[in-house]
Amino acid sequence: MRTILIAHNYTENSFAAMSYHLAHHLADVGNRVVFISHRPFFKETQIIKKKKGEIIICSWATERRPTSFADIFWFAKIYLRYKPEIVIGHFVGNNISILFSKLLSVGKVKTLAYYHTLTNQILIDSNKKKSIQSLLFFRKRLFYKLFCDLIVCPSEFAKMDLKSFHNVNKGIVVLNPMMDRFVTKDKNIENTIVISYLGRLENSKGVLDMINAFIEYKSKNCRSKIVLNIAGSGSKSKEVAQLISGLESISFLGNLPYNEIDGYLNKSHFAIIPSKFDAFNMVGIEAMMNGTPLLISNTTGLSNYLLDGRECFKFDSTINSMISLFNQIEKKEFNYEEMSNSARATYLELFSLESYYKSISKIL
């Protein structure tokens, strides 16, 4: 029985569900999985016994971000107790778990770090001083080169970014998965065309440009049937609210509970992803899982795996390109039912949990 350590969030109600389900899959096939959960926080260790393996769930020394000496000493005890052969880290779970596993095992443990965010995303969204951000990038570059055996990238975009910015050749592409929660899909778009945005409201996501493009399009097309929904939160929330104030054709719902996301996407005719920079985009996978075609920018990693006119329409992340996109949707020179079915089929082929398990198993 191998021991595999995963540092992420042990929950089904977020992007981290990929790690939750991977842990159960690995335990089902006979591994012992030590899962260190940042959120939710577990005050006491829990053990889930499987027929062939088990999952041991615990949390860091405190509920704060694991960056302190207390977290280091706590992790050292966990490592020495369970002695994992493989360590998989996500986000803040990367640093201590991977670095100190390498040190404590004298380099023997196999380490996999996830590369979720593009460099330009960080630069455009960060409020840090340039000197501090450069230092953080330098530290991360050393971390990748010295302590990581493989760096799991969710797209070719991410792998290219890792190589071009950090000069690291350890990237391997594994597409992010999504649990299948599909029920049914309403394919009628006769009266209105509902285009919905879901995600963070940050500069890199292109939300403000999307709104400005939509306002300009509607001003020239008064009889347009398109309505725009926006759900999410972030540093641009106030600007979004001010920009759409008094506009009946745009609805701002704020941050949605995770259990309402499927309903939101299912009732939408298209999900729009106007990102200026994006390593992948999990909302796109959730939309396709629900049979909702995408309107996706060419600078999103997910777009490389989709065919324009099949399960999506692609565009450049500029105001003029988005105006042309809205005009294209309004004309309805496409078969929506076919696009909806294709979106669902592409999800099943590329982004199901089963596909993810196969890819990860080959690496491990």
Summarize the structure.
With 364 residues, this protein is α/β, with parallel strands linked by helices.
The spatial strand order of the largest sheet comes to 3-4-2-1-5-6-7-8
- Provide the residue-averaged pLDDT: 95
Please indicate the percent range of residues in DSSP E strands (runs of 2 or more): 15-25%
* Low-confidence runs of at least 5 consecutive residues: none
- Summed up, the helix count is 13
Question: Describe the biggest sheet?
Answer: 8 strands, mixed
Percent helix, as a range, is 40-55%
What is the approximate shape?
Answer: globular
Give the beta-strand count.
Answer: 14
Using only C-alpha atoms, the radius of gyration works out to 22 Å
Secondary-structure element pattern, one letter each: EHEEEHEHEHHEHEEHEHEHEHEEHHH
Q: In whole angstroms, how far apart are the ends?
A: 13 Å
Category by helix and strand content: alpha/beta
